[in-house]
């Protein structure tokens, strides 16, 4: 049986009428859909993806779904970040374009930022954005950012492979260094693991990091270690402990729940299971302490989450989403909580 929404496949060769009707996607009036997606990034109330035709597409709240027209063509590896009320994408090697709601991270509905060097990855929390380069620096902007504002420079001991930021503590930037050591380089944390034994163990190499509203996680030797509310409904410690009941894992993401992508392409999630909003981290009526496999999914190659919904990219270039859907951030469904994956057709 095909996963829900798969049908016999889909191709949209003309204007993206569905997106324009659902979320007022102004950028869709002059560009057409590619054959599929190459990357997906799920934010708080919106989702953005980079397509095979090198454009950026978004769905969810109109302020993010209305993608600036200049992003109709971007580099094949252009970085994207989506947070609460804003999204950012690389436009050129050093330029970053952010759009969305004003009054939080951005002082206006659209800002253009310049990094000192080439940007290879973007990470964000509701009040900040950090860009990772190829060298020994990261560049961060904080709330109230305006076009042309200079970033705060964060020094790195080694070039970073990836990075995460943490909503509860504002601008705690943690990165995975080239030697696979996790290091928190901005904010109040020093050691990502929290536990002194892990921090002092030089052999504790990490292959992937995950972090967000409900906690932080790391993949070590195919095993997942997490800390924070995502581990237990009442757990306040952010020290990492192993999550049991998982197959060998490639990567992990954290929103209101944690989801791990297995080596075999399956997706496993735990934590808040009904995505009612921020309070769901602590007051969810359906909190899963042990991981459960997400059914009705094809083999997956990338997973993303920040808030109450999760999106996954399969090997055919299709995006599947589930969870909170009040702003149609899943790109499918009827606006109610999407309890099973549906194919995003924004």
Q: What are the defining features of this structure?
A:
4 helices; mainly beta; four-stranded antiparallel beta sheet; 6% helix; 26 strands
Summary of the model, kept short:
The protein has helices spanning 17-23, 62-65, 196-200, 280-283; strands at 37-42, 46-51, 56-60, 80-82, 86-90, 95-100, 110-114, 121-125, 128-132, 137-142, 152-155, 160-166, 172-177, 182-186, 208-212, 215-220, 223-227, 241-242, 249-254, 257-262, 267-272, 287-293, 300-305, 309-314, 319-323, 338-343. The chain has 346 residues and is mainly β. A 4-stranded antiparallel β-sheet has the order 4-5-6-7. Strands 8-9-10-11 form a 4-stranded antiparallel β-sheet, with no helix packed on it. Strands 15-16-17-18 form a 4-stranded antiparallel β-sheet, with no helix packed on it.
Describe the structure.
- It contains four helices and 26 strands.
- The chain is mainly beta and 346 residues long.
- A four-stranded antiparallel sheet has the order 4-5-6-7. A four-stranded antiparallel sheet has the order 8-9-10-11, with no helix packed on it. A four-stranded antiparallel sheet has the order 15-16-17-18, with no helix packed on it.
- A hairpin with a 3-residue loop joins strand 1 (37-42) and strand 2.
- The longest helix is centred in the N-terminal third of the chain and has 7 residues, at 17-23.
